[in-house]
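User: My advisor, Dr. K., asked me to get a structural model of this assembly before our group meeting. I'm new to this, so sorry if the format is off. These are the inputs:
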Amino acid sequence: TQLLEQSPQFLSIQEGENLTVYCNSSSVFSSLQWYRQEPGEGPVLLVTVVTGGEVKKLKRLTFQFGDARKDSSLHITAAQPGDTGLYLCAGAAGSARQLTFGSGTQLTVLP
Amino acid sequence: EAEVAQSPRYKITEKSQAVAFWCDPISGHATLYWYRQILGQGPELLVQFQDESVVDDSQLPKDRFSAERLKGVDSTLKIQPAELGDSAMYLCASSLQGIYGYTFGSGTRLTVV
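Assistant: The format is fine. Below is the predicted structure of the whole assembly, which you can bring to the meeting.
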């Protein structure tokens, strides 16, 4: 079983601050995805990273896949209240056709 | 935009009763997943279908849970009897090609009282 640990579990910041969320595992993943989930809704895909060392940017969000493909980070610049939600990382190992999810980081951005 | 449809959105049931959830995946998506999510935690896979066949149900509590996808399209997840610990969000997801294009429905929030 591949375990994904996310940190921090909870994060509350003021609008305009920067933040980084981490996703770590002892397993190697062939790809890793980040999702954002709002209360009462299903997770929505933000990005997929597949290459070790890969960096992807989505407006104020920057995603990085570790060189060894065991970890990933999500950095948000100048957070806004609309960024509030549960951020989930999810990985697939080898040829697996299913995702294993991390425990999530609950982000609250205060106006 | 294509969506994964789930119903009902909310369900309150008494313990020991039976409950069922329905999922209609995006048209053409051969792979369908059922996940369970405890409030504030990440989703955990219950069962994975490829067309009408179960690919992985190793985490499905088979003494009380069952899932079917008879025609390889929509799917039903059933719990009988429901227990207090089953209270959670039940999410359905479908994909066209493995883990790519994973799309979740809005889920069914189950409360067992």
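One thing worth pointing out at the meeting: The first strand of chain A starts at residue 5 and ends at 7.

User: Perfect, thanks a lot.
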